[in-house]
Amino acid sequence: MDNPELNAFLEPRGKQAAVALSLGVSKQTVNDWKRQGFVPAKHAVAFEALSGIDRKRLCPTFAWAPPRKAKQQEAA
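-> structure tokens emitted (76 positions)
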């Protein structure tokens, strides 16, 4: 599966190693994500924060729930 956004983000030399270090995975794991064209759901949220690529495009097969609304705290 081709993912142009993921490929472009991981293309610069040394980028895969930096991503791997930031996410606590091996460089080979990040290389596998690039080759396969997706990031597993358990890493997609952190990868989204790092890359700015929407998690739905990083892991399109996962059924992402809409974000929860923050509860308003009552004044004490």
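Helices lie at 4-10, 15-23, 27-36, 41-51, 55-58.
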